[in-house]
Design a protein that fits this description.
Pfam families: Epimerase
Helix content: 25-40%
Pathway: Bacterial outer membrane biogenesis; LPS O-antigen biosynthesis
CATH class of the largest domain: Alpha Beta
Structural class: alpha/beta
Order of helices and strands: EHEHEHEHHEEEHEHEEHEEEHEEHEHHH
Radius of gyration: 20 Å
Number of helices: 13
CATH architecture of the largest domain: 3-Layer(aba) Sandwich
Distance between the termini: 53 Å
InterPro entries: Epimerase_deHydtase, NAD(P)-bd_dom_sf
Mean pLDDT: 94
Number of strands: 16
Strand content: 15-25%
Oligomer: single chain
Protein name: NAD-dependent epimerase/dehydratase
Largest sheet: 7 strands, parallel
Number of domains: 2
Family: Belongs to the NAD(P)-dependent epimerase/dehydratase family.
Bound molecules: nicotinamide-adenine-dinucleotide
Shape: globular
Amino acid sequence: MSLVLLTGGAGFIGFHLTATLLKAGYTVRILDNLAPQIHGALPTGLDWLSDQRVEFMRGSVTHEQDVHAALAGVDTVIHLAAETGTGQSMYEIARYNAVNVGGTALLLDVLANDAGRSVKRIILASSRSIYGEGAYVCPSCSPDKRVYPDGRSMDQLAAHRWEHECATCGANLMPVPTKETDPAKPASIYAATKYAQEDLVRVACASLGMDYAILRLQNVYGEGQSLKNPYTGILSIFSTRIRCGQHLPIFEDGLETRDFVHVEDVANAFLAAVQMSGSINQVINVGAGSKTSVTEIAGHLSDALDGERNLQVTAEYRLGDIRHNYADITRLQTVLGYVPQVGLAEGVQRFADWARQQPLPQDLLDKANAELRARKLMG
Ligand SMILES: NC(=O)c1ccc[n+]([C@@H]2O[C@H](COP(=O)([O-])OP(=O)(O)OC[C@H]3O[C@@H](n4cnc5c(N)ncnc54)[C@H](O)[C@@H]3O)[C@@H](O)[C@H]2O)c1
């Protein structure tokens, strides 16, 4: 059975994807540097990496020797390794660029210079963040015309005008499912690096005659998400606060929405891309295809963890946060033949049951927010 390399495979998605690939009969190799921000200074909970069916290589996608060794004999590369904090990316620009863009460039460079390369397909974990605000219509004056608003300014946010407004009539715009053909408008450094990854993969694969799939993931949640990283993962951050008896600070008016997709569905979408015979060579959205407000998911999580609903809508905001976005998942269904299976209530309960069993991590949300405030990225 063919060998699949997962860069960043020791992380949240990699953990689930490894199990899914092994179950489907693939051999898995993981290249991961066990970044302390994700795994802690002394990584724990990684016993599964010593499974005999998993070949674990501790190393970085930014080190040529590590990449070279990891690629030997590989048929498919799934490129997951990345720095993933949207807010943090706004002030750690060089690091995000070095790992996300530099790491992808190095991977492709090693492949380009290996005349005997075995890799036939690269599957990139990209992000919905590349759309920025995504697609909207004005229900009042042009309900059939898709528009793509720019990010909201600090002035607009400070005035608590949370919704996007129609440039023609001033009415609030309404989000519609974002398609892969909609324009990319990255609004954070993280998003800019994910978009750069896409371009590198697309252009290099075309010139090297390799197939590619770019999966633009929406908000992935589920069991195994890092509880130690205060920069990303709303359910993880909120679960720690609920378990500490702290209130949940809800930004803006709490009605901002996201497309939450369970990690099991994400792993199955990657598996479908690995298994696809014939070429893919395109971008594919991976989401649930529905939108959920932050207030709603915070409420579900509080209930699932048996906590009281201690939600505080703070009207705070972060520059670079989008208002709404959810995916058009037609291509996921027609190209990869995959329909998401895990409903939100079931997925949140599964996450809560898992989180409850974990050692209680330090609540670092206030620290992460203080870093943003100090840089005037949060109001
Ligand atoms: N989780 C989401 O909601 C989401 C949404 C959209 C896109 N994505 C993308 O999916 C991918 C995986 O995300 P995740 O949620 O599993 O993140 P994660 O942080 O749990 O895992 C990332 C892994 O990459 C490793 N890593 C970091 N720098 C590395 C380097 N230089 N060399 C080798 N390994 C390195 C980390 O140690 C970690 O194990 C990322 O590319 C991310 O941008 C995730």
